[in-house]
Design brief:
The structure is a homodimer of 234-residue chains. Chain A has 234 residues and is mainly alpha-helical. Chain A has two domains: 78 residues, Winged helix-like DNA-binding domain superfamily/Winged helix DNA-binding domain (Arc Repressor Mutant, subunit A, Orthogonal Bundle), CATH 1.10.10; 142 residues, Four Helix Bundle (Hemerythrin (Met), subunit A) (Up-down Bundle). In chain A, a hairpin with a 3-residue loop joins strand 2 and strand 3. In chain A, helix 6 packs antiparallel against helix 9. Chain A is globular, with a radius of gyration of 20 Å. Chain A starts with 8 loop residues before the first helix and ends in a 6-residue tail after the last helix. Chain A binds a DNA duplex (30 and 30 nucleotides) through helix 4.
Chain lengths: 234, 234
Amino acid sequence: MYQQMKTDSSDLMVLRTSSLTGVLERELEHLILTGELKPGERLNEIQISTRFGTSRGPLREATRSLQAKGLVDIIRNRGVFVRSVSAKEALEIYDVRAAVFGLAGRLLADLVTDQILTRLNAFLDQMDEIAAGKDFDQYYPVNLAFHDYLVTSTGNETLVKEYKSFVNKLHLARARGLVQAGGLSVSNREHREMVDALASGNRERAQEAFFRHVERSKIRFRSTLEALDPPVES
Amino acid sequence: MYQQMKTDSSDLMVLRTSSLTGVLERELEHLILTGELKPGERLNEIQISTRFGTSRGPLREATRSLQAKGLVDIIRNRGVFVRSVSAKEALEIYDVRAAVFGLAGRLLADLVTDQILTRLNAFLDQMDEIAAGKDFDQYYPVNLAFHDYLVTSTGNETLVKEYKSFVNKLHLARARGLVQAGGLSVSNREHREMVDALASGNRERAQEAFFRHVERSKIRFRSTLEALDPPVES
DNA sequence: CCGATGTTTATTGCCTACAATTGAATATCG
DNA sequence: CGATATTCAATTGTAGGCAATAAACATCGG
């Protein structure tokens, strides 16, 4: 399948600017985030490297990078494993993500323009429309784009990077797809609250609205989790 | 100096549990954060690997990890360079750090105990004492321990990790030591405000107090920066 | 004297090979 | 038959070597 990658001209072009390690890293990250490689699954070095037509060296460098990003665990003399995020950790991440997203709201309240507000309202209308049709597969990507647009508009690249990193890690939560669950029309009202807060130009109000939106997602996540699992404690 | 590291028994013990890559990574991270390796400086693979008595393989894996952590930049066919954080990025980091630290305040307000408050007040008294003597070298580590104790007490390991990562990156800001500057007695009043907010048990108040503490550090940082540099804009 | 082009040299990117470790299958003993 | 010791295959950890790249230097023409 990937055997002759080395001789593929388009890939060679990529190698001009990006190293083999970088290519492997992106490719593996994609496999992990799409769920093709599932949490807990082991990554056999020989198998993967031959699959991509490289040696083990670059692959090992790529996995070290993924480890630092929190996408895999490396156990000495045992191998590389796709990270599985526990419920406890997922809840932790939700909180930190809420804080970072709240900051996005706070920053945006100060620099929001009519142009941005128009764009945001367009998003809201689009999501309302989709939600009415209960077409979940369409709703999710738009919802994602909406949040993406918000954090990106802050102009704070550090914030964007961190936020996306959290979203990625949540994809590794055991209950895959739970992250998306409970969304739709329920959360679009929260979205409107956020945009309204931005329009008011009130920093604290916007921060709180953004923060609480993620906190509510966390609560929905936990509910879905407890519905499937024995609630550990009273 | 480090030539016979391989034969040092204590280091071999470490290798039982931790890989050579891991040791190199920690060692390099230490060199970078202490400033022994300065921002912009290039890390010669042969030089470093012979210095530590290893081959280039594990070293390259270690640097990939450091790249993902944001401590070095790797340019293809050019080498790895200690990351230098621009003023713009430093200000960005301050904001995100403020958000995360604010979350720490919010979480702590809900689970603070008399025991923790006692410990915190002891920190405050100690810092007051040191600040009175204007002994900066003593103040800084205590200040660090205070903040460390705060974030750790939240029990949210994700938060702790992120917070420390931000503090580390700020060490790479061009104006080294600026991060520490402007502290002392000025900020200890803010520290008391934070602890008071915790004692009140008011979530939002604590969050805001924690958040603003870091924001004020950011402002002090920017002031010191502009005093040295041409203020870029009006 | 200065800029453009060719050459050298240091350094990185990648690969192959060997050593060390682990986990499991197998054998041995109570 | 069950538990423990032992061997063995699979896999990772590390080392060293060759090719490719880019920067530094020298050379040539204007």
